[in-house]
Amino acid sequence: MTAVFPKITVVVPTYNERENLPVLVAQLQALSIPNLHVLVVDDNSPDGTGVVADQLSAESRGTVSVLHRKEKDGLGRAYVAGMTEALAGNSEIIIQMDADLSHPVAAIPTMLERIQDSGAALVIGSRYVTGGSTAAEWPWHRKALSAWANFYVGAILGLKVKDATAGYKAWTASALQQIDVASIQSDGYSFQVEMNYRAARHGLKIMEVPIHFEERVEGASKMDLREQLESALTPWKLRFQKVEAPARVTAF
């Protein structure tokens, strides 16, 4: 009897990541996880990332696909577009990760295990649970800002998630449908926070597994002042929405 593996889609938004994207795709393929697909969501990168993505797709025998968007309008919008497409394609597990090589692909088997064996609806690749860490290259003030952001979010929203701003996550399709991912309007770190908050409000089981967060290899960070301001205001906006059942959060 042939084993049936769930369809897994890794959604990877890109903007000027032509050097990093082939490396990431190769790392994902090297995991040799059955029925794993990569969906690149490119925001019309001027450096030709979209062309590179198309080449990778053509060489992948159907495991890499590309969603081309006309303009760059934020990481949150790119993730929503990619996740919506993955759901339409009957993906059962959807992983979100950055293209800048900061998220270790080696954590994916553990994240999938938590979903398949522990009943988690959302698994977060966390820098702040035991065994997790941030990039050694980060200066002290960047580490302090990251830690403060997570404390700030947790204090306002009461989230029992240690890495509330993390962008490396694995979701079940049903979880994304329950939180109505298509309706989320936040961007940047705010997008990550709102996703977690909606999962908590719906009482979904959330787990965190440790990762070592690497500094990007090529390119530059794309978070601007507008996104920083939105990130500061979003927890307060969410705070005054109707609160439902709390999530169950379990560390690795």
Automatic annotation (TrEMBL):
<dbReference type="InterPro" id="IPR039528">
    <property type="entry name" value="DPM1-like"/>
</dbReference>
<comment type="similarity">
    <text>Belongs to the glycosyltransferase 2 family.</text>
</comment>
<keyword id="KW-0328">Glycosyltransferase</keyword>
<dbReference type="InterPro" id="IPR001173">
    <property type="entry name" value="Glyco_trans_2-like"/>
</dbReference>
<dbReference type="InterPro" id="IPR029044">
    <property type="entry name" value="Nucleotide-diphossugar_trans"/>
</dbReference>
<dbReference type="GO" id="GO:0016020">
    <property type="term" value="C:membrane"/>
</dbReference>
<keyword id="KW-0808">Transferase</keyword>
<protein>
    <submittedName>
        <fullName>Polyprenol monophosphomannose synthase</fullName>
    </submittedName>
</protein>
<dbReference type="GO" id="GO:0009247">
    <property type="term" value="P:glycolipid biosynthetic process"/>
</dbReference>
<dbReference type="GO" id="GO:0004582">
    <property type="term" value="F:dolichyl-phosphate beta-D-mannosyltransferase activity"/>
</dbReference>
<feature type="domain" description="Glycosyltransferase 2-like">
    <location>
        <begin position="9"/>
        <end position="170"/>
    </location>
</feature>
<dbReference type="Pfam" id="PF00535">
    <property type="entry name" value="Glycos_transf_2"/>
</dbReference>
